[in-house]
Specification:
It is built from four helices and seven strands, in the order ββαβββββααα. It is of the alpha/beta class and 157 residues long. The chain has one domain: Metallo-dependent phosphatases (Purple Acid Phosphatase, chain A, domain 2). The strands form two sheets. A five-stranded mixed sheet has the order 1-2-3-5-4. Strands 6-7 form a two-stranded antiparallel ribbon. A hairpin with a 2-residue loop joins strand 6 and strand 7.
Length: 157
């Protein structure tokens, strides 16, 4: 099975959404990260023809606006790399008046996941359990969840 490089849709208010793995036109590489300057992000987003770009790849949550483009990194449910090791995800609610992004993080039973992985036949269990034990923690934007809380009830275009 071959997945598409990108997914595009238009929200009810006309917002153009682009969903990609790493960055527009790329499935791998540095992706979109909080440490990137506005210039770096503008370069990675150039020509994307979208108002809202949703990415993953780095597993580091992000909600940032560069020019007229808002970029969201969903974080990670299964391989957390942020301090606190919580699962992170995003809810998008849209209607004719605009859209709202809710940025969330939740605790979960990491020990149960570690045990299940260790008893599985996965070829590299230590790689996966390293995420659960915090061995691959990366720095993230501390304002991410605060920004999400503020934006939670706002209608944006």
């Amino acid at each position: 099975m071959h997945l598409p490089l990108e997914v595009r849709l238009t929200l009810p208010d006309g917002t153009r959404v682009l969903g990609v793995h790493a960055s527009p036109g790329r499935d791998d590489g540095p992706g979109i990260q909080p440490k990137h300057s506005d210039d770096q992000l503008e370069h990675r987003l150039a020509g994307c023809e979208a108002d809202l770009v949703i990415v993953g790849h780095t597993h580091v949550p992000l909600d940032r606006r560069v020019g007229r483009i808002r970029v969201i990194n969903l974080g990670s449910i299964s391989n957390p790399v942020t301090p606190g090791l919580q699962a992170t995800y995003v809810l998008l609610d849209a209607d004719e008046q605009g859209y709202r992004i809710q940025l969330r993080r939740v605790d979960y039973d990491r020990e149960a996941v570690i045990t299940a992985i260790e008893h599985s036949r996965h070829p590299t269990p230590s790689f996966l359990t390293g995420f659960m034990r915090g061995e691959r923690v990366a720095s993230s934007d501390p304002g991410f969840f605060q920004a999400g809380k503020r934006a939670e009830n706002q209608q944006e275009k």
